[in-house]
Known about the structure:
The chain is an alpha+beta fold and 135 residues long. It folds into two domains: 5-88, Sandwich (ATP Synthase, domain 1), CATH 2.60.15; 90-134. 30% of the residues lie in helices and 45% in strands. The protein has helices spanning 92-108, 112-134; strands spanning 5-10, 15-28, 31-35, 42-45, 49-55, 60-73, 76-86. Helix 1 packs antiparallel against helix 2 (112-134).
Amino acid sequence: MAEVFQFELVSPERLLISEEVLEVVVPGVEGEFGVLKGHSPFMSTIKPGILKVQSDAGTWQEYFVRGGFADAGPGGLTVLAEQAVLVADIKPDDLAQQIKNAEEDVADAKTDDARQKAELQLSQLKAVAEALNAA
């Protein structure tokens, strides 16, 4: 029987999870990695992708995360994400419309600064879509 450990998922907006879990699978920039209780100290940057959390009841929850870092150790795992959203809360039609709007913003940008901001927003939205399609 696997043992539980403390896991926290934090975004700039709020603390999404702070509970004891069985396993977490993190989309690291060097590749996906799993964390179980007693993991050796390890720190990694994370890339846009799907973070999977197995509760102590054995069920899995998935979160889209964009950027940030993961800090694992014997005491648990903390993921500080630039953005984190429960996958179940992401509506494909809304995402498609946001991508369309962002593409229009890029096309309509009048200055380099405005274009860079619009392109960043567009790339972030496309990262969400790609992560969801790959999941």
